[in-house]
């Protein structure tokens, strides 16, 4: 089972994200990761295995930020690997996803034809690239997310960070539970 957490604070959210993910450990997972925004930079750290692996990676290379998202993954599309761990990112967008994007193969092909580069085998990675494309067309974050979500078929819950919107964490759902 996947688990998603997000936080916005005036202090470093990385410990809050890790605590939230720890509370979801009972659900079972094969990898974990976090993304944070800090002074215009998007930082993502993922680790295969238990949450202790993610904690160790962050201890070696701390990623402070005042807004962030975290995820524990149970593999559905793509093997349990660090590359397939969430969050998935494009240049300016980071996404955590619970659910299944049924039309991801068609979207992936379309986005690759537009120049998107994929680094995972997951269905989830199409989401940040769709949002990124909408942002490149000049849309504001919320409008870009709305347009991207219209293209998705399936059930999902999402947590989304966008570089440049340092005080906004976007959450969306269709058919999957999401508590804010």
Characterise this structure.
The protein has helices at 14-23, 51-60, 104-113, 126-136, 141-150; strands spanning 3-8, 31-38, 41-48, 67-73, 88-89, 93-101, 154-162, 169-174. With 180 residues, it is α+β, with helices and mostly antiparallel strands. Strand 7 and strand 8 (169-174) form a beta hairpin. The longest helix has 11 residues, at 126-136. It is globular.
In total, how many beta strands? 8
Could you give the order of strands across the largest sheet?
1-4-2-3
First and last CA, distance: 19 Å
Main sheet overview: 4 strands, antiparallel
**Total of helices:** 5
Oligomeric status: single chain
Helix content range: 25-40%
What is the arithmetic mean of pLDDT? 93
Q: What gross morphology would you assign?
A: globular
What is the gyration radius calculated from CA atoms? 15 Å
* Low-confidence segments: none
Key traits:
single chain, 180 residues, alpha+beta, 4-stranded antiparallel β-sheet, 5 helices, 8 strands, 28% helix
Layout of strands and helices, then pairs:
Elements: E1 3-8, H1 14-23, E2 31-38, E3 41-48, H2 51-60, E4 67-73, E5 88-89, E6 93-101, H3 104-113, H4 126-136, H5 141-150, E7 154-162, E8 169-174
Antiparallel strand pairs: 1-4, 2-3, 2-4, 5-6, 6-7, 7-8
Helix pairs in contact: 4-5
In short:
The protein is α+β, with helices and mostly antiparallel strands and 180 residues long.
